Amino acid sequence: MQDSSTGPLSVLQFRQDLQAKLRDGVRRAIETVLEEELLTALGADDHVRTPTRRGYRHGTTERTLTTREGTRAITVPRARLRGPDGGVQEFQSTVVPRYARRTREVDDALLGCYFGGVNSRRVRAALKPLFGEAHCSKSAVSRVVVRVKDLFLTWQQRPLSEERYAVLFLDALHLRVRLAGRVISVPVLAALGVTESGQKQLVTLQLAAAEATASWSGLLADLQRRGLPAPLLVVTDGHAGLKKALEAWPTVQVQRCTTHKGRNLEDACPVHARPELRRDYHRIIYAADGLAARAAYDACLKKWATLCAPVARSLEEAGLDLLTFYRFPKAMWKSLRTTNALENLNREFRRRTKTQASFSTEAAALTVLFGLVAVGQIVFRKIDGHQELAAFLVKEQWSQAA
Q1: In this structure, are 62 and 137 located in the same domain?
Q2: CA-CA distances (angstroms) from residue 149 to 160, 180, 185, 366?
Q3: Residue 106: its pLDDT value, please?
Q4: Is residue 385 in a domain?
Q5: Would you tell me how many other CB atoms lie within 10 Å of the CB of residue 110?
Q6: In sequence order, what are the residues at sequence separation of 6 or more whose Cβ sits closer than 8 angstroms to the Cβ of residue 215?
Q7: Do 320 and 208 fall within a single domain?
Q8: Where are the alpha helices (H) located in 271-308, listed in sequence order?
Q9: Which of 189-198, 220-229, 295-304, 338-347 is the least confident region?
Q10: How far is CA 356 from CA 176, 250, 349, 350, 360, in A?
Q11: What is the dihedral of CA 211, 212, 213, 214, to 10 degrees?
Q12: pLDDT digit string (tens) for 135-184?
């Protein structure tokens, strides 16, 4: 006969007791920290008269606080403190600020769910057993998201004079946004920078009416207005509007995305000749060094000028901007010859936004994209060959020029 003390009911009770003790321990820990914070603010222990005392207690208040261990009532001490001007003001805790009902960890959990693609209703349903309805309502989720919107506005207008990006990837993705009363597909211009240590960072996001020269020129002008120094290299997909806009940085080296250009060449080539074209093109972009790449480029251009003139014209349009990456350390070639760094970011953006038919406003669209990065749903790694980047930049004297 099974001992009931070891049965499932006993195990469940043990877990409940353990969770209750943990919650009680968290409550006591928070209250202890609040007491220490208050004593520091008062400048004296209880019942001690001293010239350093800056105020006196006057009771406590009950607050409900949601942490990752659940929701609980805590006792918050109250006090009146003398201000610098001699006036009296109420003690305000920095550990549990006024009106705060959730810890930062809980807010991070809400944001992680929301920006991970879960709508507000499902967020509430998933977290209600832990946090309760009052702390996981639709308005609670909305308030947390509004904080990210405010953070995005600050980030979008931040000064850039202290930021240095050796490489800048520029590209656009398209989202469906309601503008002027209609839902249309609009481009979001994105810039991804690479610091001197090789770390990728999102630099800016801008929604544009069209991916045209004026839009890209506006983005670059905004970066310059905020003080961003010109990068050493810009990697682009070869969009005509972006190419024209880059004239704002006349000294910057440009690398055309070899993947985009390869697709353009195949589009201009008859289907039966594409394997041969692909072999010739690979000799250019996978050469042993820049000299071999230049020789392969000239040979390919001469050959296809006879076989298929549209292919030759497309290759000539890109010119030697296809070979710029050969000027950098070989370990970095893979990362610099394409816009894949930004394409991967765009892919993550699309994966998150495909659950929404459209965005109601421009601000909503940009906030979601920024939020994915801000809350850690999208994490950037360093580029290939980042160990050699710093020494290369010193050799190029780029930091001094910037």
Answers
A1: no
A2: 20, 22, 22, 9
A3: 52
A4: yes
A5: 25
A6: 187, 189, 206, 208, 209, 241
A7: yes
A8: 274-285, 290-307
A9: 338-347
A10: 9, 40, 12, 10, 10
A11: -90
A12: 555 565 566 667 777 888 888 899 998 899 999 999 888 888 877 778 88
Please tell me the total number of residues recorded for the chain in this structure: 402
Q: Does residue 379 fall inside a structural domain?
A: yes
| pLDDT at residue 111 is higher than 70 | no
Pick the closest to residue 216 from 185, 191, 194, 181 (CA basis).
Answer: 191
Greater model confidence, 359 or 182: 182
In terms of C-beta density within 10 A (0-12 exposed, 13-18 middle, 19 or more buried), how is residue 360 classed? exposed
The model's pLDDT over 241-279, given as tens digits with 9 standing for 90+, comes to: 888 888 888 889 999 999 999 999 999 999 999 999 999
* 356 shares a domain with 209: yes
pTM: 0.69
Let me know whether 391 and 300 are in one domain: yes
CA–CA–CA angle 129, 23, 131 (5° rounding)? 25
Please check whether residue 221 lies inside any domain of the structure: yes
Q: Which residue, of 115, 131, 156, is where some domain finishes?
A: 156
112 and 92 fall within a common domain: no
| Half-sphere exposure (Cβ direction) of 305: Cα atoms closer than 13 Å | 8
pLDDT at 141: 58
Cα 384 from chain centroid (whole Å): 20
Transcribe 164-225 into DSSP letters: --SEEEEEEEEEEEEETTEEEEEEEEEEEEE-TTSBEEEEEEEE-SSSSHHHHHHHHHHHHH
> 394: how many CB neighbours lie within 10 A of its CB?
12
Percent of residues, the chain, with pLDDT higher than 70: 71
Find the domain containing 137 and state its range: 105-156
Q: How far apart are the first and last CA of the chain?
A: 81
Q: How far apart are alpha carbons 81 and 59 in whole angstroms?
A: 14
Is residue 118 domain-shared with residue 223, that is, in the same domain?
no
| pLDDT of 377 higher than 80 | no
What is the number of other CB atoms lying within 10 angstroms of the CB of residue 38?
Answer: 20
Return d(Cα 398, Cα 298) in angstroms, integer: 30
Average pLDDT on 47-76 reads 68
Q: Are residues 365 and 255 in the same domain?
A: yes
> Mean pLDDT over residues 226-242, rounded?
90
**231: three-class secondary structure by DSSP:** coil
- Taking the C-alpha atoms of residue 100 and residue 84, their distance in angstroms, rounded to an integer, is 26
Q: How far apart are CA 190 and CA 369, in angstroms?
A: 10
